[in-house]
Structure formats: C-alpha cells, structure tokens
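note to self: the first set is below, dont mix up w the second
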Amino acid sequence: MVTLTSTKKDITFNSLGPVGDKVEEWTLKGAFVQSANFSDMDYSGEDLATVEMTLTYDYAILQY
C-alpha cells in the first residue's frame, strides 16, 4: 500500500549564479510532488521541454 509518508523524500537543489557557480544549496525535508505540468513534446524540432512542478515539504534547510 502506498501512503503519503512512504512517498515523502528529501530533495536537494542548488541555486546558481550568473556564471554557473553554486550560490545556495537547499534541502527540502519530507518533500513530495503536489502537481506537475509537462510542456508539449515535439520531436520535429530541437526546442527544450519544460516541466513545472509544485513541491510540498515539511521544512527546508539552507546549507549556505
């Protein structure tokens, strides 16, 4: 049986500066995807695909 507690994970992501250097590192504790929207996948071109996600989490930690 899948429960909300079993689907929660810790997620770490970085904020990058203008030259690609790591500026901040965040860890979201007990996070899960609340919603996701995917852009149209058109294989006839080389356009980037976009995924928009809303994350819900218990609390966040700023590493630096």
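second set (the one i keep forgetting abt)
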Amino acid sequence: MSDTNGLQIPNLFYGVQQHPEALAALRALVAAAGSPNDPNGPWFIADNLITYGHARGFLSDPRFVAAVRSEQPSHDELSLIWRTHTLCWAAESSLGVPGDLVECGSYQGYSMAVVLRYLAGLPSRQMFLYDLFDPKGGGGEGQRLPAHADLFDRVRARFQLFDNVTVTRGKVPAILDEIAPQRIAFLHLNTKDREATRGALDALFARVSEGGIIVFHDYGWTGYRDQKDAADAFMRQQALSVLELPTGQGLVVKR
C-alpha cells in the first residue's frame, strides 16, 4: 500500500471487465509503465483515470498520507485516492465560512473519516453523516452490497472517538426533516440516483453558506447520468453550474 515516500495506489478500474479489448489495452499500458502509481514516478493509473507527468503531490503529503493510512483503506478505497484528496481539499477550503459538514450517502464512512483525520478532528465543527445503511434497492435507496451487513453499527463504531460526529440512519431526503444542521459549510452528496440527489438539494441547499462547497461524488460518471441531470437542473435554477472534475466528481461553490 505504501512506502516511506508516499502512497502506492492499486491499478483498479471499474466497468471495463465486460470490454475485453479495453481491458487488454489497459493491462498492456500498466505493464509498459513499469511502476505505475509510484508517487515519485510520472504515471497515475487508477479509478478510471490515466495521467502522465502530473505532480500528484498529495500522494506524498505527510498530513494526507497519515490521514489515509490511519483508516487502513481497502484496495478499492485506496484506488479512489484522487477523489479522497478532493474531499479533503474541499472540506478544508470550506472552513472559512460558517456551518457544519454534511455527507449524504456515507456507506462505510471511509471518506469522511479521512477528512476528519486530515483536519485534526474538526474540533470547532460538527459533522453529520446520513445513509440507509441497509438499502433494499427501492427508489432512492441504491444497491444492497455484502458490506451492508451490520453497517450502521460498524460506522458508528468507526466514529466513536469523535463526539462532534452524528451518524444517522434514514432515507434521504426524508430523514433531513428530522435532523440536519441549520448552516452548512461543506456538503458531500454520494446519493446515487436522481430522486435522492434532488431531494437532498431541495432540503439543504438553502442552508449552505455563501462560499460553501458542494461535491457530487458520481456527477461525471455515465452510469449516474440521471444524478448529473438532476444536479445541473437544480443549479441552473440558482444561476450556478457544476464543475465536472476528471475524478468523476462535480464541484460547486455557492455564491
């Protein structure tokens, strides 16, 4: 996973297994690259993202590396390293405006656990995490995975050392009527479908402070185009637009 100089990232790609020619080409590129994803080398090949010659300084940033390692990421989680760094940057950048941090669609809690470590526990802010934790596959619920077994208890245990974190089980957006902060500085939407994405924005956007940051986890992925369409339509109504990032995320700064 790592060496003394930074993080070594596994070459995991998603959705290519059903395309043999693309998979063969990817494997050939990884072999030709020699040591792809060496933090001191020129290549980054992971999470459906291929770059050459980019500095990728976050792979060797001591604070970020320590935050990631402290959460003992799986290979899947580690492959999302560029997305994770984006969340850390966005969360830190939002601290100049009033409000708390919110994530809708926390799954196993990895991303926000790294953010908390990166920001030294956020002693002056609250963090609110929402998820069904046991989806049945209905509208706005997402797909049930093996990791969902006992997930709510495991996520609560993950954050038990942080008294400023509230982990809430419920369906977004309905659960937001029961518990949500009045002011939000950072909002991460990992909601997976149109209904939940639009519902979360309807419930929470007015609470996001001017200068606050919103990150959409799956905005730029073709498999989640409905979510992108919902986000775009909502933001047009606010005279805003979403910046599509190479990571597949979307980014908005409220103004």
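remember for set 2: Residues 128 and 166 are 5 Å apart (CA to CA).
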